Amino acid sequence: MIDIPPVWLVSMCVLAWLQSQHLSFGLSIESWFTDLLSGLLIGAGLILMLLAVTEMRKQRTTVIPHLEVQKLVTTGIFKRSRNPIYLGDVLLLSGLILRWDAVLALPIIPVFLSILERRFIIPEENRLRSAFKADFFKYCQSVRRWV
């Protein structure tokens, strides 16, 4: 398997969709509120990802995990979250689970969050800490990991 976050995101989405289609057991939380909330989560997730990728491209650094970064990006959306793309992934997954009314897939969200932290965020932060030392420490003091 290719070890990049979009592959994990798609895998989790497929699991949620399959649960909604084949293992619903008659459980439902569908309402006008969940429809609204799902749309807001999906939209917010996509916007966060777009803002982050745009900022990283503007700063001429990679968006691909496991590669060495050329610059510590602390501008734009990165002033609010150290991991806006991963936050966007989690919001998108959450929104899709609500949209598909995949009640039993809700535990996938913390599992996905844990995978992102262990496989990507912690190793990335270790590389940034090693490469940018005091600047990264200062950045971590002023900007939270998620929000």
Runs in which pLDDT lies below 50 for 5 or more consecutive residues are: none
Mean pLDDT: 94
Bin the helical content. 55-70%
Strand percentage:
under 5%
- Main β-sheet, in a few words? none
Number of strands: 0
Element order: H for helix, E for strand: HHHH
Q: State the end-to-end distance.
A: 30 Å
Instruction: Please tally the helical runs, counting DSSP H or I stretches of 4 or more residues.
Output: 4
* Rg over CA atoms: 17 Å
- Which secondary-structure class do the elements indicate? mainly alpha
Shape: elongated
Give the helix/strand layout.
Elements: H1 5-22, H2 32-58, H3 84-99, H4 108-142
Helix pairs in contact: 1-3, 1-4, 2-3, 3-4
In short:
With 147 residues, this protein is an all-alpha fold. The longest helix has 35 residues.
Detailed description of the structure:
This protein is mostly helical. The radius of gyration is 17 Å and the shape is elongated. The longest helix is centred in the C-terminal third of the chain and has 35 residues, at 108-142. It has helices at residues 5-22, 32-58, 84-99, 108-142. The chain contains four helices and no strands. α1 (5-22) packs parallel to α3 and α1 runs antiparallel to α4 (108-142). The mean pLDDT is 94. The two termini are 30 Å apart.
Could you list some keywords that capture this structure?
147 residues; mainly alpha
